[in-house]
Specification:
- By secondary structure, the chain is α/β, with parallel strands linked by helices.
- The chain has two domains: 265 residues, Crotonobetainyl-coa:carnitine coa-transferase, domain 1 (Rossmann fold), CATH 3.40.50.10540; 82 residues, formyl-coa transferase, domain 3, CATH 3.30.1540.
- The protein has 18 helices and 13 strands.
- Helix 1 links the parallel strand 1 and strand 2.
- Helix 1 crosses helix 7.
Length: 396
């Protein structure tokens, strides 16, 4: 069986993360992704960002499986090439600021006249209209303004961002959903769609039930560290040589935990007999648990907790995370050979499907690496035509 998106062609105008992650995920599912870059290239190519042998590790990650073509969309000849690619493509993705598509004459009304089946997806910071449309939308800006930084970190400490660029990634996550829905709808209607989303909206959506509690109940959350507002114990505890997490959502797990801790008094204590009471009395209970967890190593606690079926895990750094058995079992490390840096190993595709066994992992492209190939094979241009376009500055 082929990959489910085999035959889908995506033109990616996106840069850095928000405009590249979504199409990278779709490429894992079989889509052909043509990265359309300006002569200076994607800003994500900046070698000072996650530097690896003179190349950006960020670019190596978010652009695997893609082809690169350099087109100067500020020239009429360059736009004509892009229009020809739009005619034979399914999706166009960008994360430009509002107004850029119109200035370049590649907005949805223009592209849909060229190809009524085209799906155009734009990832913005705050939307294409409104008071904030022109505000810069870097990851930390969106994490801050959307409320996420205020509820991340330890109580009484300065705000911190989520360790991964979650706001940028949210643009990719939700763009995938929108594109897949539009592709499905096009099978029924034959018509493409304009898909538009903002990172701010996406991060508000990801607040999930915490947003509900504020909007409905006026409940303003505080940064909980590793703890949980509504369940105790549900947090990290320091052991002799690291940290271990336990999560006792159901009462059965609380009783099993007490057995493992060999502290029957905890089970009998009227202040701790229900989760509601444990939440009310966390200031009394948690210090007792902290004292107990300091008596053994992480490995010792995990052996005991897992044997008793208490939800528990070590607090891994990346060395520990990528050494866990499911990583190998589920092929969550992929690699490719890059012409500039050699072997690159990176996180794999989490979406597994029946009948699909091959993992797609092709190198992130050099700038303009596939320009001639794409123009020749997809648009049937001759070498002489391509050379003339280079001379005009339409391509690179």
């Amino acid at each position: 069986m082929s990959h489910p998106l085999q035959g889908v062609r995506i033109l990616e105008l996106g840069q850095i993360i928000a405009g590249t992650y979504g199409s990278q995920v779709l490429s894992d599912l079989g889509a052909e992704v043509i990265k359309v870059e300006a002569p200076e290239g994607d800003l994500g190519r900046n070698p000072s960002v996650a530097p690896y042998r003179g190349v950006s590790g960020l670019f190596l990650t978010y652009n695997r499986n893609k082809k690169s073509i350099v087109i100067n969309l500020k020239t009429e000849a360059g736009r004509e090439i892009f229009y020809k690619l739009v005619k034979v493509s399914d999706v166009v993705i960008d994360n430009f600021r509002p107004g850029v598509l119109e200035r370049l004459k590649i907005d949805y009304p223009t592209l849909s006249r060229i190809n009524p089946r085209i799906i155009q997806c734009s990832v913005t910071g705050f939307g294409t209209a409104g008071a904030y449309k022109d505000y810069p939308a870097l990851d930390i800006i969106i994490q801050a303004i959307s409320g996420h930084m205020a509820i991340t970190g330890e109580p009484g400490r300065p705000p911190v961002r989520v360790g991964i660029p979650l706001a940028d990634l949210s643009g990719g996550i939700f763009s995938c959903k929108g594109i897949l829905a539009a592709l499905f709808d096009r099978e029924r209607t034959g018509q493409g769609r304009r898909v538009e989303l903002s990172m701010f909206d996406s991060m508000l959506n990801l607040l999930s039930y915490m947003g509900t509690m504020w909007l409905t109940n006026g409940e303003l959350p505080q940064p909980p560290g590793s703890a949980h507002d509504y369940t105790v114990p549900w947090q990290a505890f320091k052991a002799q040589d690291g940290y271990v997490v336990v999560a006792t959502r159901q009462e059965v797990f609380w009783h099993k935990l007490c057995d493992v801790l060999e502290e029957p008094s905890l089970t009998a204590d009227p202040r701790f007999v229900t989760n509601t009471l444990r939440v009310e009395n966390r200031a009394v209970l948690v210090p007792q648990l902290e004292r107990i967890f300091l008596t053994r190593t992480v490995a010792d606690w995990l052996e005991r907790l897992r044997a008793a079926e208490v939800p528990a895990a070590p607090v891994n750094n990346l060395d520990g995370a990528f050494a866990e058995p499911p990583v190998a079992e589920r092929e969550m490390i992929v690699e490719y050979d890059h012409p500039e840096v050699g072997t690159v190993r990176l996180p794999g595709n989490p979406i597994k499907m029946s009948g699909v066994t091959e993992t797609i992992s092709r190198p992130a492209p050099l700038l303009g690496q596939h320009t001639g190939e794409i123009l020749n094979q997809i648009l049937a241009m001759t070498d002489e035509q391509i050379a003339a376009l280079r001379k005009q500055g339409a391509i690179g």
